């Protein structure tokens, strides 16, 4: 278990460095992340490299007995590169040219950017690659963040057409696959194909947009792969990762594919950011951590862990005493075995002068410092004991990048639209998290995986697969086998009806799952944010977003619509079907978080998965260590709360050792 | 009476065609609309035409004893045209270039587009013009839709300057007419004149914008006229139309002028679309149908009639059983004598894969199919009997394209602003519909006409003319004669004060109507959406949007402001004036729908027009057939409702024959 | 004291002129403002000047015994200039090119615009400069209005780089000052530096943006200085001014610096505009007038005084009888000694055809005319008696352009963000006005000054300085001396912590004020619009926007947080510290207007400043005239109200003479 910190020695005086490292060590930190925004510093002029600052810092890091992760500095590039190659800029969907002076500006399709990247990364990897203090590398920084996963520049257009040619070989095939007979858009020359960017009213073809999303993912991954190959060559034995940006799930880039090329996953954990008035609900934070854990099915790193209030030009919520320590414990409990706090000391200048670190702008030790120091010492033994052990679970939730992309451009219901920033549409992500919350609030350890991941599903008693509209036959087949062998599968509305070309199948919902689910649906209403009454036995539930009217073939009814304002009152809303030795639940509507909890109680009970509700703000996990097992109780409320017979103080966590 | 369907054989396999036509016939359909998006299919390369697919389809249509309307395919154009002529794209006010891959992209001022249009339409008209199965043509598709009635491309700018030169001859005249002495914008060269597009704060001159709207209307009409002339030449004896897009009224293009060149009006009837949570109120749907009917004062066609839920990327309301049949009946009752359902079967791909047709993505017959089949058989005799008879009315409401355009750029009150999509401002349209609702809810057959239409007003006992701010002296004169001869005219606030150059007159409101109305107003408040109390005798009304303080000269007071928060409490709000043998009501404020109903009760009673309120959800019409007369009762509610002594089931309609 | 009117003779017939001047004189007006939008009229072709219209008008003005102020006509420029120099257009942050046909389009950095300005202003000044009727000049019109104080055109970029070179001399210095080591944006060539315009997510560096704001201010001032120098040369003895646009404070341009070059300040006073449903609260109007008065610490002019409802395409609130007279009296009372009404008669055409003047579109004398005529005659004696006497005050509030700019790009809290139009962010201005309201509502005459102004602070018993985050050491020093000598200083949250480079200091809040205030703060919450309970003795207050947790060193506690939902309940929120002979209050949170009133009661009482609350709608001022002193009572309510023992009618003002 490593506790470290993100450190920017270039922003302080060399006189500070030794003292800074001492302050870190006193707090219990043993590692630093360095250099991920320092391209301009390390290559002040084209081809002229200067690594002296970080040489000096690494020497002091070594002397302090600490280690370092180095970031490749390609998330911003030096002004001289933009001047020489103005075409390097990304262009947003709205037409904004991303220029020097901000970050994440460069186009992944730009040959000049790739060439310059190759040079700086080669120089850096050669120079630092075998340094004894350097234990690993972070490739780039938050790749794809801030909407840079969708670029509409002319260079992107050129590569898109190449990508299409590579995929479809002939325009005939492309025209057929996209259904271009619709509106008569039959391309007869590859260069006729635009990028599916800004438009006034009707959008571009869904098949085209889906391909554009895939293309952009491939571009980003190939760009990072370029760096990975260089670093692997010159820095043998070092572990490679990159840090995923904080939003819950990642809808354009296939992060599962990306981390196939890396050694572990890391992620930036900000339960509250900017002008948020409240932190994210704790189940959303755990959902994200399990998503991160599941990308490689192994423990992970938090590369940036919240330590102080953060924002670029506005701020919000101030975590009360105890909460930042609780968030640290939550991350460890969900599977983090390396945690770097963001950041050591608050920058006095620049766009992040309001991104507070452990220390403030001055060097006085803060309450945050002492709180994290104390938490580290309290959880250290526990963290060490579980650091190389997997997070155990009998339940899993599956997500799917193809569906994330699909719902980005075709949300289906206003209830599946959510754009906290203009360049994001994370309705899919929120829906997945809402389903996850159902078992999280019942204190059931739950895994999260890409649906396409090669996992032995028989490990799990219950698997949930929401919003699996775009299907992959291989996945359907594997899930079918899982159920046949006794598993419980919970699938959601609108499942199994779009093929990989984005064509909707001829058979009714749930398409490829019809036999398994024993149910069909021919009518639906997209109810947006409205709440629709549903009855499950004596339990009143609330549906929303989408309401399918179910017609069971072999399934039996679990819940019915009971809403007196709906003509489909009395029609089935949730069914269950026996299939092989297992069961398939079909949930024809989305549910509110409270209703998901009620529904999962039933599912878990029947699947013989132990669960227990301890209150809305209490989170309980179970971990297996080398020496002990552990029950971890966390109170996410600012008030004292009972967790069963245990009284927890505000933001208290309690780790109970259980003898094996 | 023809019931037909919009059919896209190109989206299905040739093996489907015969079966499809059989399914249609079984439902009671006898006609199809074809080809309106198939340019890319019919001219895959420039100048290389291929009509084989539609030849084959028409052959089968003929064999099935059915007929066809062909659409000219110019609402999208083939990619090769964009590649050869990149300048062909429209540019939106916000600067978005409308590229290939979406629809309605091409600039009506583009010589390349006109030339290419000429070629494909000529080829198509020559090829299909005399085909026995082809009974008519739809020119283009929804021309002007999706904001394409306002183009700000450089080509539009060039033609705008030509248009201005043609209109004003000299810059002196233009500068005077626009009042360019204001802000000192005296043009001394035609090429100095920009298009009145995007701006940061203050807008362009209202006179200039109004001219730009007129110019754009002329461009669109002349573009369609080009096609009309070709089709008339090569397809003799066929009826020509185009289909107006679904929004209630059409504020830029002068549709009355356009249909002067065509044989009948058609329109696309979607009482609910996209993510709407509720359908439009039924009076709005009838208002639109009467607007359509009035454009040529004759029966009309619904070219796209709602059959299934519709949307591009999100959906909403699901019509309960009975409602789509009711909407069909409502259209027939308002004067439709041809109805084509949109669409036969739901596309599996493309931007409209969520636009559900009669059939879903598969071929299983749906509940919608059976419901429409049943409705057709129920109303067929009625529909046939009235199909060549005019819709009778003693009351009319007038609208005016000049005022629609004026209120688009100068809404006057926040209450007259409504932009359901960014490129539309339909406050004028909603105000007209609200006035229309006043008589519709009282179950009075009501006509709707362009104010400038050459109609014998003496047909009517009551004529309403809301928002007639921009006046035409000839119209004022004709209405004056109408009143003198005994008619009742109801005019609204802000009447008669802007001339054709957009200058406000020197005399006070109601300007040109002062003598007729016997009232003046010197003060007003634009109250936005606020409600202001008004008393009409014992009836409490609610005004909104705009409140004029009236000063009667010869008129008597009908209603007064009674709002204790307004200093003009006690001042007249509505007046009536005897003029010749008739009466002029002047309504100095807008009213809520409920208040309009109360006000019209008074007006109708005094004008001796029979009316009767049967509840908010009940609509009653009276039709005259060749054999019988008919009273049609419709319940637009999902609950059972009394209509007088008749109990109607949810969404029930009842057609009662009355012997002549 | 002069009462005048804004007159546009060019918009009317020469036949009107004499009659118009007669109507004005009858009303009590003795001066006109002319010509400020007439460039196109006076220079119809490049270099061809024609002043005949205004010659004729001035002759009639002289004959009528009236005077004139001439505006230089550069707020719009003639179309020929745009045609010849298309690069002259400003480009907004969003990329909109400001073209001919609107106003405020030209780029202040454009050599062509400056050259053309020089020519027209020289010709005009030569022609009219010594005209006996011309008493003064208005330079340009509302410079910087409508977002034209921020231009992102390429020409602005060129001058920005020159400005930076001039300021920093070397890129090394610039890189250090901006902290460009952050994100590695070290510039190595001046031409690499972009303008900090549109961006997708993360903004540009705060140091860079602050410099851009300073640069734009310098550009505008130097552009106006160019005109000033010409007019001074050719029009000796005439008083020079320009009219500030109506928004409360002016966040980009340093107006204090600007008016250093002019003779007096003028301003456009519209207490309600466009679609506003209510006028601004009266303390906001007085706050603005005192801001205007304070720019030169002398009486001022209202160059455009509200006379009729105003708006470009929508309208709103109608002032009841009495209110426009009250607004006139309020302006005079706050220090206006020249008032020009906007405008004589309402334009029949152009963008301002809905900007109603004293007369409407016709020439009939209106209720507004008679109301203003009556008010002028009522206040004339009072106005004359105080017209050359300063507005007296014992209390002052300070604002600061550097902080206004800072909060524009770094608002800190959602509660400090307010954008009534997209191009404005006036959260700082509203906060200053809210603090001002605290003493205004207590009927304490209050001055307002730029913090950097060279004023003898010892004049004042109490000085407030809110949001003084960016500090100037000289200002801090002077305030420190003021307190030491016995003054009372009230400072606000987040004071004293950003230096002129936008770096945050190492010491905690309140930074440079720590010793004076005797308090420190290490934690804060940005609570946006939420209200947080604060207790000041028995008085319950409400904090909002920002809550600092205070840790007094030498100060004593004035108020504490009492909010049970906040963990910092019980912590100090407001403190007071004795320092030298004076006191420093530190207000760690913003307060609601009501709470500010309660807080200031305490401050004023202790500082021995007399005050008295007479109700929310009552405003009382004290003025010293040459002959008498005056107490002015104003009722800003539409209902009768008691002001102590005086009963005021709706919108009544009462001026009581007090013998000296």
Alpha-carbon Rg of chain A, integer:
25 Å
Q: Identify the CATH homologous superfamily of the domain at 395-606 in chain A.
A: Class I glutamine amidotransferase (GATase) domain
Q: Quickly give the structural class of chain A.
A: alpha/beta
Global mean pLDDT of chain A: 97
User: Quick one: CATH class of the domain at 395-606 in chain A?
Assistant: Alpha Beta
* Beta-strand residue fraction of chain A: 15-25%
Tell me the greatest interface: A-C, 65 and 54 residues
Characteristic terms for this protein:
10-stranded mixed beta sheet, homotrimer, hydrolase (chains A, B, C), globular, alpha/beta, Beta-galactosidase (chains A, B, C), Rossmann fold, GH (chains A, B, C), Glyco_hydro_42 (chains A, B, C), metal-binding (chains A, B, C), 660 residues
Question: What is the topology?
Answer:
The structure is a homotrimer of 660-residue chains.
Chain A: E1 2-6, H1 14-27, E2 31-34, H2 39-42, H3 52-63, E3 67-71, H4 79-84, H5 111-128, E4 134-138, H6 154-168, H7 171-178, H8 206-234, E5 239-241, E6 243-244, H9 255-259, E7 266-269, H10 282-296, E8 300-306, E9 314-315, H11 323-334, E10 336-342, H12 367-386, E11 395-399, H13 401-409, E12 412-413, H14 427-440, E13 446-450, E14 462-465, H15 473-484, E15 488-492, H16 514-517, E16 519-536, E17 539-552, E18 556-561, E19 572-579, E20 582-587, E21 589-591, H17 593-606, E22 618-624, E23 628-635, E24 641-643, E25 646-648, E26 653-659
């Amino acid at each position: 278990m490593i506790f470290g910190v993100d450190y920017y020695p270039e922003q302080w005086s060399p006189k500070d460095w030794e003292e800074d490292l001492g302050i870190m060590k006193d707090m219990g930190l043993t590692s630093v992340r360095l250099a991920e925004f320092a391209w301009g510093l390390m290559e002040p002029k084209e081809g002229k490299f200067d690594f002296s600052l970080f040489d000096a810092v690494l020497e002091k890091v070594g002397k302090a007995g600490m280690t370092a992760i180095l970031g490749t500095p390609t998330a911003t590039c030096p002004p001289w590169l933009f001047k020489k190659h103005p075409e390097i800029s990304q262009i947003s969907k709205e037409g904004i040219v991303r220029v020097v002076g901000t970050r994440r500006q460069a186009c992944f399709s730009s040959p000049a950017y790739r060439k310059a990247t190759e040079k700086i990364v080669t120089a850096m990897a050669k120079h630092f690659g075998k340094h004894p203090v350097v234990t690993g590398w972070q490739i780039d920084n938050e790749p794809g963040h801030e909407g840079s996963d969708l670029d509409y520049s002319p260079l992107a257009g050129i590569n898109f057409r190449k990508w299409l040619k590579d995929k479809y070989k002939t325009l005939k095939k492309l025209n057929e696959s996209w259904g271009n007979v619709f509106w008569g858009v039959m391309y007869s020359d590859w260069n006729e194909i635009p990028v599916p960017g800004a438009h006034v009213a009707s959008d571009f073809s869904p098949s085209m947009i889906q391909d554009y999303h895939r293309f952009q993912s491939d571009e980003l991954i190939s760009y990072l792969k370029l760096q990975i190959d260089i670093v692997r060559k010159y820095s043998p034995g070092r572990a490679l990762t990159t840090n995923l940006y904080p939003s819950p799930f990642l809808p354009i880039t296939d992060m599962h594919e990306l981390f196939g090329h890396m050694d572990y996953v890391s992620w930036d954990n900000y339960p509250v950011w900017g002008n948020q008035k409240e932190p994210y609900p704790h189940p959303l934070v755990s959902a994200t951590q399990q998503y991160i854990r599941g990308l490689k099915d192994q423990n992970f790193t938090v590369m940036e862990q919240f330590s102080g209030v953060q924002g670029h030009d506005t701020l919000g919520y101030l975590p009360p005493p105890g909460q930042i320590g609780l968030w640290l414990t939550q991350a460890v409990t969900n599977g983090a075995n390396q945690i770097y706090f963001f950041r050591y000391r608050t920058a006095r200048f620049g766009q992040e002068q309001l991104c507070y670190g452990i220390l403030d702008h001055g060097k006085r030790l803060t309450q945050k410092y002492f709180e994290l120091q104390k938490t580290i010492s309290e959880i250290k033994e526990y963290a060490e004991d579980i650091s190389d052990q997997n997070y155990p679970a009998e339940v899993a939730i599956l997500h799917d990048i193809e569906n994330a992309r699909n719902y980005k451009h075709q949300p289906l219901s206003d209830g599946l639209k959510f754009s906290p920033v203009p360049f994001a549409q994370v309705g899919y992500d929120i829906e997945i998290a809402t389903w996850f919350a159902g078992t999280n609030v019942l204190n059931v350890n739950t895994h999260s995986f890409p649906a396409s991941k090669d996992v032995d599903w028989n490990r799990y008693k219950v698997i949930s697969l929401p919003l699996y509209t775009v299907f992959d036959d291989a996945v359907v087949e594997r899930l079918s086998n899982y159920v046949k062998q006794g598993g419980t599968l919970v699938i959601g509305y609108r499942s199994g009806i779009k093929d990989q070309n984005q064509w909707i199948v001829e058979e009714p919902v749930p398409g490829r799952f019809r036999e398994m689910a024993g149910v069909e649906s021919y009518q639906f209403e997209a109810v947006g944010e409205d709440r629709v009454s549903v009855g499950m036995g004596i339990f009143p539930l609330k549906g929303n977003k989408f309401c399918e009217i179910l017609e069971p073939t072999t399934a039996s009814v679990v819940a019915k619509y009971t809403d007196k304002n709906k003509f489909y009152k009395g029609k089935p809303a949730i069914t269950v079907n026996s299939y092989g030795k297992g069961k398939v639940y079909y949930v024809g509507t989305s549910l509110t978080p409270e209703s998901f909890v009620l529904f999962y109680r039933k599912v878990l009970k029947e699947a013989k998965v132990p669960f227990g509700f301890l209150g809305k703000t209490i989170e309980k996990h179970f971990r297996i260590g080398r020496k002990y097992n552990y029950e971890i109780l966390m109170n996410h409320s600012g008030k004292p709360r009972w967790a069963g017979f245990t009284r927890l103080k505000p933001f208290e966590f309690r780790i109970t050792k259980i003898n094996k």
